[in-house]
Write a structure and sequence with these properties.
- With 326 residues, the protein is of the alpha+beta class.
- Helices cover 32% and strands 18% of the residues.
- The strands form three sheets. Strands 1, 2, 3, 4, 5 and 8 form a six-stranded mixed sheet that branches. Strands 6-7-12-11 form a four-stranded antiparallel sheet, with no helix packed on it. Strands 9-10 form a two-stranded antiparallel sheet.
- 37% of the residues are buried.
Length: 326
Amino acid sequence: EWHRKTAANLGGEEAFQKQFGTSFDITGNTLINAKKIRKISATAEEFRPIDMPGQIYSECFKWKTSEIHDIGDLKKMYLTLTIDLAEGIGQDSDIMNIHQLKWDKELEKTYCETIGVCEINDITVPVFAEVVVDFVSRYCDMNNTILSFESNTFGSLFYKSITSYTDKNPNLLWDSGILARYEKDMFSDSKDISKTQITGNKYILGFKVTHASKKAACKIYKLYFEDNLIRNIYTKYITQMENFSDLNGNGSYEATYGHDDIIMAEVQQAALMQTLKYKLLQESFEGSLAVSSSGIEYVNYYDNEFGIPAIPGDQYHYNGDDLYTF
């Protein structure tokens, strides 16, 4: 009874574990190895709100304030936004993780770092869609931003809500071209998940989460995070990662207790990095740095072994839970 009341007063089981020190007994089956988790724990940062004039639900945005002081600076950045949608009010939160593309001089590679999180658990998906559109239209450069969400029932509702909201507010600075497209069978069991799979001209709007795609994306995420190509030192993320484990030893990861919503938005970032759209954003970012080409591998993505044509404009077709672009 004491445990239940204390956890409720602290804000949940995760906060209880952190408060009383029991979350540091990291299981050997965590997605990220225990040594890496302990290392990033030593540099963990509590993200905090900053002034966001005009933004609805601005109090639900938390930022890495050791770097982000002025929200206006986001317009100068190359960003990816990954969305994990809640399956009902008061359960998991609706999450938007905000990542900045950065250059590591030692690795001579681009990496993605989480610089902000929007977390809300008491609004509907349509309202969350309005929050996201409001944020993007105010503070992001449409030419240098990608927005990714799940392709499922909730993702379809999210997309339809975006369309409805932007249609009713034509003065919003919004371009649906920022939405991420995934090759339909990118993460099927029959394919090599270590490479971007592009085999046709049919793409799903959003990341289709299945048992196979989640396992594949988790595997890629592990490789990227442990190689410092994806970085996140947000305290709440670390707490969730300490308890994100393969419970049955079959390569399927989930929270041992509490939530994994921030983690799943992060895992989606690894999937996004396999897409053509991300590769073109990365190429544009690296070109903007005026760095020596000796450390960067440039690829012409419109003339390669797959013979990919340019992705056509925003012509969508809705079919069940999938949103396709042709």
